[in-house]
Amino acid sequence: MTAVTAVTDHTEHERERDEPPAKPSSTDGTPGEARNAGETSTAGETPASGEARHGSSEGVWDDGLIARRGGATSSSGAPSGGPSGAPSVTPSVAPSGAPSGTSAPSSTSASSSTYCGTSTSSGASSSTSSGISTAYEGPLRARLDALRELVGLSRTRLDSATLAEAGRVLDEAAARRRLSGRHTVVAIAGATGSGKSTLFNALAGVTISETGVRRPTTAAPIGCSWTDGAAGLLDRLGIPGRLRRRPLQGPDLNTLEGLVLIDLPDHDSAVGEHRAHVDRILALVDAVIWVVDPEKYADAMLHERYLRPMAGHAEVTFVVLNQVDRLPGDAADQVLDDLRRLLDEDGIALGEHGEPGATVLSLSALTGEGVDELRDSLGQFTKERGAAARRIAADLDAAADELWPVYAAGAGTHGGRGGVRIGLSEEAREEFADRLADAVGAAAAGQAAERAWRRNAGKACGTPWLRLWRWYEAQRSPLNVGWPATREPADEEATARQRVEHAVRTVADEAASGLPQPWGQAVREAAVRGAEGLPEALDELTVSAGVPEGRPPRPGWWPVAVFAQAAMTMLQVVGGLWLVAQIIGIAVPNLGVPVLLMLAGIVGGPCVEWGSRMAARGPARRYGADAERRLREAAAGCGRARVLDPVAAELLRYLEVREQYVRVTGAVVG
Questions:
Q1: Longest Cα pair distance anywhere in the chain, in angstroms?
Q2: pTM of whole model > 0.85?
C-alpha cells in the first residue's frame, strides 16, 4: 500500500504539470502544487534573461558620490530600487558551489518584486500573497538595503570576485522573498550510510526515499511538502516534478504544516554530481538537518567542509545523532556529549537552556526512538516562519565577515575596530602646502621682492654719485645681477619636480594610512592622476603669481626723501660752484660759507639715504612677505584642486561605503 501511494503521487504530479495552471485543482493538494509550479514558470525568467537585465542595469550606477541618489529613477518617477531609493543593482554572479550547467537564481527586475518590495509579478502572486514573512522588514530589510548600496558603491573599486558572495546573498534574498513565506525549506544532509533517507521516510510517514545497502542510495534530491503552494520553492531548488512527494495523511500532518523537506545525496559520495547537488541546495534552503552516525560523527570532511564554515548558521541547523539503537547502555549519551564538544570546537553555538543555537538530538530512525522529539522541534521551528529570514541574516553575517578585509581592516573609529583616524589632518595639509611652496621657491620669491623694493628705494633716495657708481659697476659686471632674476637652471628645475613628486607621494601615503588595501590603492591612484601636469602648472604660477612685474609701489614719504636728497645735492653743487667762482676771481673770497654748504650736502646726502633705507626696511619686508604669501597660496590652491580634492573624494567614498558596511553588519551608526 505504501508503494502504491508514492507511485500515485508521482503520477498526479506528472499529469498536473501538463495541464494549464488556471485549471481548478482537487482537494488533495498535489494539483495545487502543479498549478503553482506552472505559475512560477510563467512569471519566472531564464538565467540568460536575468543576466541580460543585470548587464543593462549596470549603467544606472555612476562613479560619483551622491548623484546616484537623485538620478536613478524609473520611468514612472519612482525610485528604481528599494524603498530607500537606492538603485536595485547587484553583480550578476552565480552562487558559490553551483555546478557547471546549473543556472543561478535570476536577479531582480522591474517586472518582479525585490526582496524589499511589496508588488509581485502576475505569475508569482499566488505564492507571495499567501504569506510574506514580516521578518524581512525592519533590521533585516535595512541590512539588505545597505548591502545593495554597498555593492553599488564598490563596483568601480573592487573586482567582481570580491563582491561575488555579496551579490549571491542579494540574489538569493530577492529570490526567496518572491516565494512563499509560510513555508520552511529544510534539507536532510549527511554522509554515506548515516540514515538520511530512513529519517526522511520516518518524518513523512511513508517510504518516499529509497533506502538500502547499496552506496550511494540517493542519487538526486527528493522533495516532500506538507502544505500546498511550495512548487515555486521546489522549482528554485531544481527538483523536477517526478521527485516531488507528499507525506502520508494522518494525525501528525498538522504538526509539520508548512514544512518542505529535502532528502539530499551523500555529501561524501564518490559521484561528483551528487556532491554538486548537495553544495548547490545547501546554499538555497532555509535550514539543514545534519544526520551523523556513531561511526562518522567526527568525520573531518563534515566538520571542515560544512559545519565549521557554516558556524554562523547555528540557529537554522539541526544535528541529529542517528542509529543510537546500535549503542549499548549509556554509550549514546557519551557519543552525544562528544558530538557537542566537537560542535563547540567548530564554533557552533548550541541551543541549550533557551539560548539561540543549533539543535542537537539523538534518535534512531529505524526504531522510531527520538523521532517524535525531532518532529516536535521541526514543527515549532516551522510554525515560527522565521527560518528564511534567519538564514538570510546568517548569510549576511558570513558575507560581512568575508568583506571585512576590504572595508574595515585597519579602519578608524567610524565603524572600524581599530583606532586609526581616517582622512587628512590639518598638519598633513599644511605640510603638503609647505612642500609645494618650497618646490616653487616661494621664500626665494619673497626675498627677491624684498630686495627689489629696497633697491628701488635706494635708487629713488640715494645720492646721485653713489647711483652713478653702482651703474658703472653694473656695466662692468659680466653677469646681469639686476632684478628680475634669470630662469633657474635645468638641474634646479629637476630638483623642483622631484620635490613636487615627493610631496604628492607623502600626502597620498598619509591619506591612505589605515585604509584597507583596495581603498588605499584608490587614494594613491587619485593622487597620482591629479599630480599629472602639476609641476608645469606650478611653473606657470611662479611666473603669473610670483613677484609682480614693474617697480614696487612707492610710499607717501618717498617724495619728501627725494626732495631732501635733491636739496643736499643742490647744496653740494652751489657750494662747489661758489668755490670755483672764488678761485677764478668772480666771487668775493669767503671760504667759510661755500665749504659749509658743500659739507652739509656731502654729509646730508648719505644721511638722507641711510634714513630712507631704515624707513624702507619695514615696507620692503612686508612687500616680500606679501609676494611669498601670494605664491604660497597659489601653489596650495593648485595642489588642493589637483591632488587634495580627488583624494578627499576617495576618502569620502570610503567613509560612505564603510558606513554602509557597518549597517550590513547590523551595528547602529550614530
A1: 162
A2: no
Closest CA to 189 of 100, 279, 99: 279
**Distance between CA 511 and CA 422 in Å, rounded?**
7
Pick from 190, 327, 287: nearest CA to 338 = 327
Tell how far CA 80 is from the center of its chain.
21
Dihedral sign, Cα of residue 262, residue 268, residue 270, residue 275 = positive
What are the φ and ψ backbone dihedral angles of 558, each rounded to 5 degrees? Answer: -60, -45
Long-range contact set of residues 296-299: C-beta below 8 Å, sequence gap at least 24:
296/191, 296/193, 296/194, 297/321, 297/335, 297/338, 297/339, 297/342, 298/338, 298/339, 298/342, 299/191, 299/268
Cα–Cα dist 141/664, whole Å: 10
Which residue's entry shows cell 555593492?
151
The Cα 247–Cα 66 span in angstroms is: 54
Q: Residue 602: how many CB atoms within 10 A of its CB?
A: 18
168 is written with which cell numbers?
A: 549571491
Whose CA is closest to 258, among 200, 188, 183? 183
User: Does an H or E element contain 466, and which?
Assistant: helix 464-476
Q: Where are the beta strands (DSSP E) in 191-316?
A: 222-225, 244-245, 259-263, 287-292
Question: Of 649, 518, 398, nearest to 156 (Cα)?
Answer: 518
CA nearest neighbour of 661 among 396, 368, 306, 475: 396
Residue 339: per-residue pLDDT = 95
Measured CA to CA, the distance from residue 235 to residue 176 in angstroms comes to 12
What letter represents residue 447's amino acid? Q
Question: Look-up: residue for cell 604669501?
Answer: 629
The length of the chain is: 670
| Through-space distance between the first and last CA atoms of the chain, rounded to whole angstroms | 64
pLDDT tens digits, one per residue of 462-513: 666 666 666 666 667 654 444 444 444 555 666 778 888 888 899 999 888 8
Coil, strand, or helix at residue 366? coil
- pLDDT, tens digit (0-9, with 9 covering 90-100), for 209-219: 666 545 456 67
Rounded Cα gap, residues 493 and 539, in angstroms: 9
Using an 8 Å Cβ cutoff, are 316 and 390 in contact?
Answer: yes
Taking residue 233's Cβ as centre, other Cβ atoms within 10 Å add up to 28
Residues of the chain with pLDDT under 50: 1-134, 213, 215, 412-419, 479-488, 669-670
* Predicted pLDDT at 368: 92
Predicted local distance difference test score (pLDDT) of residue 344: 94
